[in-house]
Amino acid sequence: MGHTALVALGGHAILRKDEPPTIARQFLHTRRAMRHLLQLVQQGWGLVLTHGNGPQVGHILIRSELARGKAYPVPLSVAVAESEGEIGYVIQQSLYNELAAAGLVRPIVTVLTQVVVDKDDPAFQHPTKPIGPFYPDEDAVILRRKGWPLAYAEGHGWRRVVASPRPVRIIEGEIVGRLAEQEVIVIAAGGGGIPVVEERGRLRGVDAVIDKDLASAVLAVSIHAELLLLLTDVRKAALDYGGPGHTDLDMLTVAQAEQYAREGHFPAGSMGPKVEGAVQFLKAGGRRAIITTPEALGPALDGLDGTVLVP
Ligand code: ADP
Ligand code: MG
Predict the structure, then answer these.
(1) Pocket-forming residues, ligand 1, beta carbon under 6 Å
(2) Exposure winner among 20, 118, 163, 310, fewest CB in 10 A?
(3) SS3 for 43?
(4) Which of 283, 237, 228 is nearest to 261 (CA)?
(5) pTM exceeding 0.85
(6) Whose CA is nearest to atom 27 of ligand 1?
(7) What is the residue with the minimal CA distance to atom 1 of ligand 1?
(8) Which CATH number, 3.30.70.330, 3.40.1160.10, 3.30.1360.10, 3.30.420.40, labels domain 7-117+167-255+279-301?
């Protein structure tokens, strides 16, 4: 057991906000990110990868909405499953090619991952996560009648908001762990996983999205990973991020991380879930968590870059 690294890829590793969202771009960025992950394979780590899916799931919903009457619409849980397939394919092929270029061969598989959430999670009463297309005023009336909570974004229009409940348990966690032990590289829990609720032992998909960093932490614990790598677009977590007292953090204990989180340094929806996920992982027996960029991964593994969190 052990010697597995769980690597959570931030949205930036696959698609950048400032450029046209195309499949070609996703392959380009993913290939670059995979090149940085090669060193983990070369160092003998077993790998499980997770990833974000915000833009991709948004576009799947747009296609579903615009094709109404011609193709059947997909609920959000199905859109998340589709995004896991789409991004899983991009990662599988990109990583295969990068490994091949380095003379390495590893089986790589994507596992569609269902993540159990509590149907009484308070998040269901307070949907906060905007998702999918923007709608004009006249559509908003119809959508509200459908029961969709909407939020208004100035200059863009109305947008659906959905709940972001906490991940409780990963249905496919055990098989992901077994595959990783057999040196299979696994891509799982993409987009935080397909949210499902459990009712009398049965599963049912729900309209929600799960935070990918929190789901990654739950998966990391479930597979007894040693290392949790949260790769994003900043090299280090910071205190007073972007403010006058901005201070990059090199090393944090769980106690320090919790203290700074309480002081409000890590906002919800960006750095907050990364630090929280890292803390959960370390409290459950993980040895080390690192927040950094794909580019800084090498030095960060040697303790020379990134924010390293330890128990
Ligand atoms: P990802 O797709 O990798 O999850 P996020 O946008 O959710 O990316 O989180 C990374 C972002 O968090 C950074 O780009 C940065 O702007 C923001 N951020 C907020 N607070 C902090 C902080 N205290 N330290 C570093 N980055 C922070
Ligand atoms: Mg994020």
Answers:
(1) 10-12, 52, 232-234, 237-238, 241, 265-267, 270-271
(2) 20
(3) coil
(4) 237
(5) yes
(6) 271
(7) 10
(8) 3.40.1160.10
